[in-house]
Structures are given as structure tokens and as C-alpha cells.
Specification:
The complex is a heterodimer of chains A (94) and B (716). With 94 residues, chain A is an alpha+beta fold. Chain A has 2 helices and 6 strands; from the N terminus they run E-E-H-E-E-E-H-E. In chain A, 14% of the residues lie in helices and 27% in strands. Chain B is built from 25 helices and 10 strands. In chain B, the strands form 2 sheets. Chain B has a 7-stranded mixed beta sheet with strand order 2-3-4-1-5-6-8, sandwiched between helices. A two-stranded antiparallel ribbon of chain B has the order 7-9. Classes of the chains: A alpha+beta (94), B alpha/beta (716). Strand 5 of chain A pairs antiparallel with strand 10 of chain B.
């Protein structure tokens, strides 16, 4: 089993999923707000749509969060290999 | 964590705890944004909502009265907050009231509203609140949406997990308020609980009847997260920087970029709360079946509504439709109301005055020429306003307005403002006063300043009434399009003034990234839409009955006082010889380059400085005083009778270019100071210096653009 190199949320294809990773260059207040909205390390996120201005509509469980273009590039994600048994699945916990 | 805890028996509501405002105990509604908190508040209080500042702060909260079994409570609808660690002054109030206030001043009971479709999002606030000596009740909303999304939240298991009563409610149904009220009444009669442990022992295992989520393992966000996880770094209410109740700011001043010190932060409290949340969610949220994960209905709608291409088109189309429907549907109602007021009502009042022998005295003249004419004409616009408020409430209740903020984010970014700044600006299209107050959703003081300076350029509903009148006089075949153009011009003014300020006085702005949760779409409930529309119409009527009546009275008196010696035997001067006309004429030359250098228009604009509704009232008063019936008495005039007189004056003042002058008048009306109430709100939010600066900027911009519009338009 292998994991790809960490990428940012901006790199994810629409419709593909990844796990929010530790690190990234997001400040404390913004990180807190992201965590409050469900975007915290270990959560599975999936960009659903491109929005006006270059942002993404991101699904975190059943929640939907619009993240702006600038912030997308600062949130690290890890894309599990397809055979990774630890891949989490979406549910309503966000 | 605070260490001292109230003994269980010390405080009960009957003993007066949580009753800072009056005789009734206070119940606070708290919760994250977009969970249906205010809808539930309206359901419980019957939309008998009063809005005002929380004492000692500038934060606006809703108040209401709620009849519970055996008692009545005052309800406070707190601003939405994700946690007790605030990012904005609005959120800071929730912390100040629920955490920092002395126990005896805290609410008697706190109803924490949670969204069943995004349970974890609201649980952090609950986790913090349950660590305080507060009576708590959880109201669980959106269960129907969760059901459609293949989720089931077990209220009993949730209650067991959080140690707080949980009531599943549908804020759109009346019986939900009754059920919640019963539980709240029971809670208020109980003793204040002691400190609950931050980390509960693991909740009971999932019942066999609820299938494990198809053996899918740990769900996102449900597994334990290491204490040093960056996602937890932001949270510790006992951290020194968070103890003052002020919005938190990043010490490095860069809301996007600073990550220093993450590893060294004391993360225990936040980590424990997130772990607790994970356990609570794992024990109470279940997929009903193993149906495949698929786009929701809201996702499919958002493919259009937030699309880079179709999103702005849909936004503009919806706004245009609102104004088109408003003008076309409400027009017959307005005409009927106008006929009623200028005909039967006026005749009835006059006959009553004659029977009382008051018709020819100042009382009679004031009632007919002043109140009936000024306020009466204003009332004819109530159907239009009610319709527009109702349509905007439909958009709000459906969840579309959050998408509008996403769509307009790019425009806001161009001004250096976050996308959230569009929310106060949207409010401004209803009324500028709450819009200025709504700038508190912005965390940064400079963002709040710029937004508060831009709010007056958003076209409020009072201006809508004047647009409609002017458009019906000069552009009767294109009334809706004229109004729509005015709203587009309003956006142009916002952008232009914003860029002007950003390039001159307000250059250094911190970035504020776009992070916005989107609520699922709902089918609007007519009863709730009607309640919202009524609350706003009531606010309009309150203005009309207060400041407008006062303005009408002052104008009537000024019209009754002669500016010089009049003809012998006249008990009242012709209005054109009154003090009002004289003062208006003094300023008239200022507007000559804009094509509406007529004292009627100038007088109306002077009154419009107090409140825009006054423009219509004064026009009606002024022209009513000039139109006497056969018996020599002044009479009220309707919009149709006003049109020829206004058109003639504009034609004369513009040297034959009334259309260009009308556009210039509309532009000036849009851009100059909205009303004194907005100035008062601005002074409260940004201080009198910036408020005075704003007034100067509005007047200069309004005059300059109005002159340009007329000078160009009259040459085309």
C-alpha cells in the first residue's frame, strides 16, 4: 500500500476524495473555523463543483462548504491509494 | 476551564436566575448559522420579534416572549456562533453572555439548536456550553432533510450521549414549538447542573437495530484525531488570548499564512472536545441503509446556482424577476389603495371635520393636506413593499441567499472585502439600518469600516418606493426595467466607491479567505415567508408612523408659515410663498446642472435626508396644497394626479429634457445619504468622523454622477 505525495485541496479533481492532512499553511483562526465546519485532519473531503471566483463547493459528509481559491491552495490533503483499507467513507458526521 | 461551579441547588429560574431584563426568566437560543435557529425562534414567539442592541454592546439581537406551560419566558435569539471562541463581535456576544457573565446574569436556560444533517458542526458549541453551569436543551432541526439524505439521528441516544434533553423539532410546524416548550419549561424548573465532564465516558454502543454504516469503518471526523493535529490547534478557550471575549485575531496579522506555534499550543481542551464530538456522532448518527453516496438535490441545484457561468446569470435573473413581479402584481393593489385613500377616506375625514366645524382650521388642513396626503400616499406603496419583502424572504428561506454571497464573492474580492461582506449589503437592499449593524459578521475592523461606508449605496426599500413613483411618471411603459437598472446602478456605486476608498484611504487590508457553509435548499413555507414579510412591513410602517409623521408635520408647518408678507385676508400662504419653498429655493441652484433645479424636487430631497419615504410625502403635500378643489379647499392627490405636475416642473427645470433630468434625479436619490437612522447606525459602528466622511462622500458622488447623467443624457 502506498500513499501519494500530499497535495492541496486545490489539486483535487472535481468528484475525487481525499483526507484532510496535518500541516498546511492555514492560520489559527481560519483553521479553527475550518475545523468547526468539519474540515479537520482525518476528515474526508470531496470537491463537488467549481464556484464563481475559482473556489470549490466541498462536501464533508453531508455538509457543504464553499472554500475560496486562495484557501484551497493552503489546505493539505492526502490521497489514499485505492487499496488502502483505511480509506474513510462519507457519512453524516460533518 | 473555569474552576468554580455553582452548587446544584443554588440557582433556579424561579429564584430569579437569568432574569436580567425583567420579570420573566430569559431563555437564549444559540447555535451555528443556518441551523434554523431564527425560524424556530419565530415559531416559538409567533414572530412577535423586537430587535435591539444587547445592553452595553452594539450587537443586535432578537427578543420575544414565549408562553410555556405554566410560565412565560423572554427569549433571546443570539447571533449564530460555531463556538465560544469568537471571530466577530456578533459571536463575541454569545461568549460574553453565556460564558463570561456571572452565573446569576446568564440565561435561565439555553436552547442549543443543532442541524441533524451536520451534527458535528454544532456540537463544539454544545461541548463548550455543557462545561458551564447552564440549563441546556437541544433542539434538533432538519431531521427531514437528514432522512432524505439517508441519515438517521437517534434523539434518545443523542440525549444520552450529550447528557442534555434533546427534542427533534421542525421549526416550520407549530406543534414543534409546543413540544420544545414543554421540555424547556421542565428544564427551567430544575436546578442548575454542576459542571459536566469535558470528556464523557464512551457512549453506549450502537443498538443492533441500527446497522453499522455498512462496515465502512471510521467515518470522516469520527475517528480520534491526534492532540497535535493542526486542525485542533486553534481551540482552547482557556488560552490567554481568548479570555477577554474579543474576537480572536491571528497574532501574526495574516489570517491565511501563519502557522507558527502550532505544536506548542495547549490543545488538551479542544482535543478532548473533538474526541467527545466524534463519540457522540458515532453513537447517534447512522446511515439508514447502505444506499450509494450520490449528489443531493441541493448539489444538483448548486451546479447551476454557484456555477462560474450560470451563477451570476441566475442571480441577476432572480433579482430582475423580483422587481418585475413586484411592480406588475402590486400595481393594481396600489391603484386601489390610492383610490380608497384619496376618495372615500379623504371624503369621510373631511365630512367628519365639517361636522366638527374643524374643516377650515389648521387641524383640518393638517389632517387632510399633511397626514392624509403625505402618509396616505406612502401607504399606497405598502403592497409593493410587502410583495418584495415576501419574495426576498422566499429566496432567504429557500437557502439561495447564501449562494448569492458565493456568486458575488468575486466582486467583493475586487474591493478587498471577503465574500461575507455581501451579506450586510444584501440586507441593505431591504433597509440600510440593520445592514450597517450586520457588518458585525465581519471579523476585521477595517472590513467592517469599508462595508459600513458602502452600505448607504445599497438601494433600500424606501428608495424603491420613490423609484416606482418617478418611473411611473416618466417611464410608465418601463417601470420594472427602470427599477432594475437602479438596482444595478446601486451595485455599480458600491463597487466604484469601494475601489475609490481602497485606492486612497483604506489601502492595507488583511486577506480574509472565503469559507462559507451552504445550508440545504428548502421549499419555502408560506406561513414563515408571510411572517418575515410582515415583520419587515411592520418596520416600514413604524417608520412611517414615527419619523415620517414628524417630517410631514414639520414640512406642513413650514409650508404654512409665509416667507414674507402675503396677500391681505389669506389665512395661509400659497405654498410657493412659504418658508419651505423659500428654503428649498435657496438650494435649488445647486441642482440646476443636474436638470432638476426645481424647488419641489429640492424640498423633497431635503426631507429625504431625514428619510427617503419623505420624498413621496413631501411631493404629495406640496402638490396637494397647490391643487384645490371647487370649494377652495386643498385636497389629497394620488400618483396619477401627481404625474402631470411633476413632469411639467422637470420639463421646465431641464429646458425640455425631462427624461434625462429624471434619471439624474434617480441617481442622486440613490447615492446621497439614505436617512438619519442610517447615520445613527453608522456613528455607532464606525464613529462620527467616518460617518461625517461618508456623508460628504455620498453627497459629492451623488451630485457629480447626477450632473454627468443629465449633461450627457440631455445631449443624446
Amino acid at each position: 500500500m502506498t500513499r501519494a505525495e500530499p497535495r492541496t485541496l486545490a489539486d483535487l479533481e472535481i468528484g475525487s476524495s481525499a483526507v484532510i492532512a496535518h500541516g498546511g499553511t492555514v492560520s489559527r483562526p481560519v483553521r479553527q473555523r475550518l475545523a468547526e465546519l468539519g474540515l479537520r485532519p482525518g476528515a474526508l473531503a470531496r470537491p463537488l463543483l467549481r464556484t464563481v471566483g475559482g473556489g470549490r463547493l466541498v462536501a464533508v459528509g453531508q455538509a457543504r462548504v464553499v472554500v475560496g481559491r486562495e484557501l484551497l491552495t493552503r489546505i493539505l490533503v492526502s490521497v489514499p491509494a485505492p487499496d488502502d483499507p483505511k480509506v474513510p467513507v462519507p457519512d453524516g458526521s460533518a | 476551564m473555569s474552576g468554580e461551579r455553582t452548587p446544584p441547588e443554588a440557582l433556579t429560574c424561579a429564584a430569579g436566575a437569568g432574569t436580567p431584563r425583567g420579570a420573566h426568566p430569559v431563555v437564549a437560543f444559540a447555535g451555528a448559522p443556518n441551523v434554523g435557529k431564527s425560524t424556530l425562534f419565530n415559531a416559538c414567539t409567533g414572530a412577535r420579534r423586537d430587535t435591539g442592541n444587547w445592553p452595553g454592546t452594539s450587537v443586535e439581537v432578537g427578543h420575544g416572549s414565549w408562553a410555556l406551560p405554566g410560565m412565560t419566558v423572554d427569549v433571546v435569539d443570539l447571533p449564530g456562533a460555531y463556538s465560544l471562541t469568537p471571530l466577530s463581535p456578533d459571536e463575541a456576544l454569545t461568549r460574553a453572555l453565556l460564558r463570561d457573565a456571572p452565573p446569576e446574569e446568564r440565561p435561565c436556560c439555553v436552547v442549543v439548536v443543532l442541524d441533524a444533517t451536520a451534527l458535528a458542526r454544532g456540537l463544539y458549541l454544545l461541548a463548550e456550553l455543557r462545561e458551564l453551569p447552564l440549563r441546556l436543551v437541544v433542539a434538533l432541526t432538519m431531521s427531514d432533510v437528514a432522512h432524505r439524505r439517508n441519515l438517521a439521528v437517534d434523539a434518545d441516544r443523542l440525549s444520552a450521549a450529550v447528557g442534555v434533553p434533546v427534542v427533534a423539532v421542525d421549526p416550520r410546524r407549530r406543534d414543534s414549538a409546543t413540544a420544545l416548550g414543554t421540555v424547556v419549561a421542565r428544564a427551567t424548573g430544575s436546578a442548575v447542573p454542576t459542571q459536566r465532564p469535558r470528556a464523557l465516558s464512551p457512549p453506549p454502543a450502537a443498538p443492533p437495530s441500527l446497522p453499522d454504516p455498512a462496515g465502512k469503518g471510521a467515518a470522516p471526523g469520527t475517528g480520534p484525531v491526534p492532540r497535535d493535529a493542526p486542525g485542533h490547534a486553534a481551540r482552547d478557550d482557556d488560552h490567554p488570548e481568548n479570555t477577554a471575549g474579543a474576537p480572536r485575531r491571528d497574532p501574526a496579522g495574516d489570517p491565511l499564512g501563519d502557522t507558527a506555534g502550532d505544536a506548542a499550543d495547549p490543545l488538551l481542551a479542544a482535543d478532548e472536545r473533538f474526541t467527545w464530538i466524534d463519540r457522540v456522532v458515532a453513537s447517534s448518527v447512522r446511515h439508514r441503509t447502505g444506499l450509494p453516496d450520490r449528489p443531493t438535490r441541493s448539489d444538483r441545484i448548486d451546479q447551476v446556482a454557484t456555477s462560474p457561468v450560470f451563477g451570476p446569470v441566475l442571480f441577476l435573473a432572480l433579482m430582475w424577476a423580483v422587481f418585475q413581479i413586484t411592480t406588475t402584481v402590486a400595481r393594481p393593489l396600489q391603484e386601489a389603495l390610492s383610490w380608497l385613500l384619496t376618495g372615500p377616506v379623504t371624503d369621510g375625514v373631511r365630512q367628519a371635520l365639517e361636522r366638527a366645524d374643524l374643516a377650515d382650521g389648521w387641524v383640518g388642513r393638517f389632517l387632510v393636506e399633511g397626514l392624509l396626503s403625505g402618509v396616505g400616499m406612502l401607504l399606497t406603496f405598502v403592497p409593493m413593499m410587502a410583495l418584495m419583502f415576501g419574495l426576498l424572504a422566499v429566496l432567504e428561506d429557500s437557502g439561495y441567499m447564501a449562494r448569492a454571497a458565493v456568486v458575488t464573492d468575486r466582486v467583493m474580492r475586487a474591493l478587498g472585502l471577503p465574500g461575507r461582506a455581501f451579506l450586510p449589503l444584501i440586507v441593505g437592499f431591504g433597509c440600510n439600518v440593520p445592514a450597517v449593524a450586520a457588518t458585525r459578521v465581519l471579523g476585521d475592523a477595517r472590513h467592517r469600516l469599508l462595508t459600513a461606508l458602502l452600505v448607504p449605496f445599497t438601494s433600500c426599500s424606501a428608495r424603491l418606493a420613490v423609484y416606482l413613483l418617478v418611473a411611473s411618471i416618466f417611464f410608465p411603459d418601463n417601470t420594472a426595467s427602470t427599477v432594475f437598472i437602479m438596482y444595478l446602478l446601486s451595485l455599480v456605486f458600491v463597487v466604484a466607491a469601494g475601489r475609490l476608498l481602497r485606492s486612497t484611504l483604506l489601502r492595507a487590508f488583511p486577506p480574509d479567505p472565503l469559507v462559507l457553509d451552504l445550508p440545504p435548499y428548502h421549499l419555502p413555507v408560506p406561513r414563515l415567508v408571510g411572517q418575515v414579510a410582515w415583520v419587515r412591513v411592520r418596520g416600514f410602517l413604524a417608520t412611517a408612523s414615527g419619523i415620517i409623521v414628524a417630517a410631514v408635520a414639520v414640512v406642513w408647518v413650514l409650508q404654512a408659515v409665509p416667507a414674507g408678507p402675503g396677500p391681505a385676508g389669506a389665512d395661509r400662504p400659497a405654498v410657493e410663498n412659504s418658508v419651505f419653498a423659500s428654503v428649498s429655493r435657496t438650494l435649488t441652484p445647486v441642482f440646476a446642472p443636474a436638470g432638476f433645479g426645481d424647488w419641489h424636487a429640492t424640498g423633497a430631497l431635503i426631507t429625504g435626508f431625514v428619510a427617503k419615504e419623505g420624498v413621496i410625502s413631501v411631493w404629495s403635500q406640496t402638490y396637494a396644497a397647490q391643487q384645490e378643489d371647487g370649494s377652495g379647499q386643498a385636497r389629497t392627490v394620488g400618483p396619477d394626479e401627481l404625474a402631470p405636475a411633476v413632469r411639467a416642473d422637470f420639463t421646465a427645470a431641464s429646458n425640455g429634457h425631462p427624461a434625462a433630468a429624471a434619471w439624474a434625479f434617480l441617481v442622486f436619490l440613490l447615492a446621497y445619504t439614505p436617512c438619519v437612522a442610517t447615520l445613527a447606525a453608522q456613528r455607532r459602528e464606525i464613529g462620527w468622523r467616518w460617518t461625517a466622511f461618508g456623508v460628504g462622500m455620498q453627497l459629492v458622488l451623488a451630485w457629480s454622477v447626477a450632473v454627468a447623467v443629465f449633461q450627457i443624457g440631455s445631449r443624446l
